[in-house]
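User: Can you predict the 3D structure for this chain?
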Amino acid sequence: MSFSTLQIGKSALLAQRYGLEVVSNNISNANTEGYSRKRADLTTANSKYEAGNFVGTGVIADQLKSFREEFFDKEIRNSITRNAGYEADQEILTRIEGVLGEPSETGLNNLISDFFISWDELSSNPDKSAYRQKVVSSARSMTDKFHQLAEGFEEARIDVLSKLRDNVADVNSLAKRISEINSRIADNHSSAIEGDLNMADEREVLIEKLAEYGKMNVSQNDDGTVNVYMNGVNLVTGKSLNELKLVETTNGTTNERTIGLYTTDKQGNPVNKVNPGAGKIEAQMKHYNETLDKDDTSGNFSIAKSINELAKEIAANVNMASVVGFGLNDTGAIPPGRSFFVPYPTDADALSIQVNSVILNDTDNIPLSSVAGESGNNQIGLQIAALADDINFINNRTPGEYYADLLSKAGNMLSDSQTGLKNSTMVLDQMKNQRDTIIGVNLDEEAVNLIKFQRSFEAASRVVNMADEVLGTIVNLGR
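Assistant: Here is the predicted structure, written as structure tokens:
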């Protein structure tokens, strides 16, 4: 028995106390978001050669291990990105569905049908003012609905832009916090292993929040910091970061307004264009630049542009017939060139289409006859009524078929987003559950570890007490 026994006992006390601290920290953070359980790895201290033998010198706390798994973190980030994209799609497409308000008696589908039916009825009763008034009334109901749709889509687009700006601000805030954690980790990397691991947990929570906005890739650096990329473009590089900025551009020829995402220099000027790849920002930019853009030129589906085209074709085709017709009181061989809809001859759209004020003020001015002075002539009315069944009216479809096709496309997009969200949520939950079984704190397991380290600490205390008593006895023998 020598002083080495005391040293062995001391090393055991320190190691078991450290184990107790790690277990206690696990238990206290059992409900902390993003926390990964830690384990104190104990190893045998280097032996020493004494009296012809190698003698143990105790135990040391070799390292603190985190159970965090990069594979699960990566897969969960990807699932979060997909989930957030579907969620944004669903939110916007549900808004579009609400604006359309179909099926409904006051929906555009019924109002277009009523408009052409009113012309058919007027053609059968060309000399009755009640049917003329019905044509005007149905036309106003239809144009009012076009206005409502155009305004609803534009309001939805403005809201999407507002959310985009908020989301880009969130990305910049999260990236800044990640770079700050990187700085703390780099500054303390050599002396605070446990601190590094806890800050790494906090950082991963932020990266997962960042993943809602775009496709995130992460790489590790030797100093414990990470680099974070949005679909290949640097957001965070160690301690530094690149802020993002939305830039809106307007096409001088088409008046199309589009939003782009860019990194910025220190003065806030746009530098490199960023394609988020997926997530909230990607979905919102798509709907802003395409689905809700009445001037879209991408060739992809745009509900706002499609409604505009329908209003334009209705106005153009009805006006083509009406400008060569005559009202009840018109005389002479030359038609007055009275359009039913305005603006004319410029193209109308969903927001601008109106019934000509000349007709609103006097329904006798409705151009129903192909010849002046023939009150029973209904040729123009029949031509306009026949437009309802014209398969070449717009895109090789009748007006009703064209609008039904728009509703089908919008409905399918919403259905796809709902199905995608349901499936991605299920996958995300499964991935999180699998990760939690590995990195999550199991209180039953920690309770066992607590007892284990407690008993080991008590045993080490007895070793120290015993060594103290033996050494005391030896000292007393020499007196």
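The mean pLDDT is 90. Residues 73-141+166-300+420-431 form one domain.
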